[in-house]
Amino acid sequence: MSKTMNTPRWNATRIPDLTGRTAVVTGANSGLGIATVDALARAGAHVVLAVRDTARGEAAAATVAGAPGTLEVRPLDLADLASVRRFASSWQGDLDLLINNAGVMNIPEAGTKDGFEMQFGTNHLGHFALTNLLLPHITDRVVTVSSGAHRIPSSNHIHFENLNLTGEYAPMRAYSQSKLANLLFTLELQRRLTAAGSRVRAVAAHPGWAATNLQGNDASFLRRAFMRMGNRVFAQDSKAGALPTLYAAVQDLPGAAYVGPDGLGEMRGAPTLVGRSVAASDPETARRLWTVSEELTGATFPQRLGADLARPAGSAI
């Protein structure tokens, strides 16, 4: 996307009026999540903070003062598929925008309540199930937050024979796999939406290097120290880090688009369309991952997307 000196850099003030629109943001009680909530609410949206700890969610919602939109806090634990199903089954009415933002990064080896490796289970499988269960309600867009870490050479593929990385767990390898899965999920979701004649779009975004509390949970002391230094010297703040997500949520983008910062190494800057790795662009791997994810979660692409979502075959998304 070209820029000239006369073209203002995209920021949250350019979000259109979202009055009457409803959004769900997962992991919304801190960092990129609450920055995303704040911007959407200031544009007039009704925003649901889907959070594991509702007390922290309410405290976060209280920081969004003076916004014309409205806020609501609901419990959601992406590391517990029963919690995901409760959240989805309680939903009524339309949902314009689902933002799959929540995530864990580089944590010590751990498992979800359903026995999956925590990073893959939370970052990918939890959002996979949530999205499919909510799709009959979604009217506009699914935005899934990935990461430049999907390109890490040591884990540039999905470990289909050992998704939990049992006996070969490394925090960064597990994180990279989960972020690659986010992009493959977006690719296959868009293919299925298009085949079903839906006008809903699936897109992805990454924040670059944003200073949040996510890095503080790193399993490595040395990486934590490096991240703390980087947060002070190199990183964008959470509001700037949320801009690619917001851009993906409201701009007229093609399905399966990927948005990130436009600066050096995509670490910081204004949001723009960016590329992804060859592994993240493989439709066969995306389909295989989808099939495996359905088997693991029991969540499948819905047969009914809603009569109001149908569009003529061959029309633009």
Automatic annotation (TrEMBL):
SUPFAM superfamilies the UniProt entry points to: NAD(P)-binding Rossmann-fold domains
InterPro entries for the chain: NAD(P)-bd_dom_sf (IPR036291), SDR_fam (IPR002347)
Keyword Transferase in annotation: no
Keyword terms: Oxidoreductase
Similarity comment: Belongs to the short-chain dehydrogenases/reductases (SDR) family.
Protein name per UniProt: Oxidoreductase
Native organism: Streptomyces milbemycinicus
Phylogenetic lineage: Bacteria, Bacillati, Actinomycetota, Actinomycetes, Kitasatosporales
